[in-house]
Amino acid sequence: xxxxxxxxxxxxxxxxxxxxxxxxxxxxxxxxxxxxxxxxxxxxxxxxxxxxxxxxxxxxxxxxxxxxxxxxxxxxxxxxxxxxxxxxxxxxxxxxxxxxxxxxxxxxxxxxxxxxxxxxxxxxxxxxxxxxxxxxxxxxxxxxxxxxxxxxxxxxxxxxxxxxxxxxxxxxxxxxxxxxxxxxxxxxxxxxxxxxxxxxxxxxxxxxxxxxxxxxxxxxxxxxxxxxxxxxxxxxxxxxxxxxxxxxxxxxxxxxxxxxxxxxxxxxxxxxxxxxxxxxxxxxxxxxxxxxxxxxxxxxxxxxxxxxxxxxxxxxxxxxxxxxxxxxxxxxxxxxxxxxxxxxxxxxxxxxxxxxxxxxxxxxxxxxxxxxxxxxxxxxxxxxxxxxxxxxxxxxxxxxxxxxxxxxxxxxxxxxxxxxxxxxxxxxxxxxxxxxxxxxxxxxxxxxxxxxxxxxxxxxxxxxxxxxxx
Length: 470
Ligand code: TYD
Ligand code: MG
Description:
Rossmann fold, seven-stranded mixed sheet, globular, binds thymidine-5'-diphosphate, 3 domains, alpha/beta, nine-stranded mixed sheet, Ribosomal Protein S5, domain 2, 23 strands, binds magnesium ion
């Protein structure tokens, strides 16, 4: 049988096929499959080519408790960034920083570079997208032109690694972006997944051998996939994504994977005229401009990692003229909303079938905690009954399919944050009530969804009408 000389790889997800096809079976993308040279040995691959064996003893085996000469972490001094990385960049590790184009990745990294360089480390910033002059211009705008960051505009990874190996080894290397990098050892066009993977492998090996922390920038597409660079996600030590709403000024840094730290911490920044500013009290930011007297808004006492975070849920429940009423959610799980509506109908005595329902988490934040159910439900009921909720009240608790309310973890930390921000009362589940201990807030405990609905409906101007639960 003739040896095949090429394979076909999906440029979106990296799946490999023997022949061309219009649609990728793995990710469902159309026209994403392109021909690439077959069996191109990835430079520095983990396994040796067939027929080659390792020599007798080529590396030293060491115990877990051995000593490492340098401090394993480098703090950037940008607290919101260090929080997400788990206390600074780990030497010899590789971080993939993903985000939509224009979100501020290069800005964030330039600020981090300057801070690390300030601490006396050698920092190299390689841009494959911008000329040195453009990068300098940004640094100037950020007021960082004096920082000792070494700049280069380069896309060939062999040249980059050779240059980095000369002189004092750098402790932090930025590659902006991995999509622009290419390796001579890979016979595919620049920008293909094979090239991205090959180039990443060389840079990762450089990080491991030199002890430098390497940050790879990867652009993501609108649907949130790290296109192309997604194929390197499993090879890197941490995947961090930089998110935000283009129209709004704040940006959220979130760890998706982290071999050296937590994945539930977020860092909050605000894009200003002079770069990214840290937001150390995000609750105040997310609640800014809140109109507490409008029906349909409820404040959730949330938790992001170790930090309590207060956010506003906004709901609009409006009579629908459609046979199939609309349900739209921003910042929350649509399945969770469907479930909550079903529970409100079955156990809360509400009829929502004839209403369009919209739910929004203010500030472009994405909430994934189940404990937000009570706040979402409160906002929905408040909008339906046209009853504004008390402006100084927070809501927390998970709603079970039985209608029962379940306690939120770390309840007392959430209540403490709410009290700090001037809230005076909280709706909490009766289950686990004792665990909350004493609180500065007036606690209103409910055992199930019907308690929550009844409490809100009692405030409704339409009291006694169809809105009042049976
Ligand atoms: P950038 O860091 O280039 O984004 P990325 O590398 O993720 O593509 O940031 C680009 C945007 O940030 C650009 O639209 C302008 C804005 N910006 C500011 O608002 N203030 C600033 O000080 C800087 C440097 C950029
Ligand atoms: Mg950029």
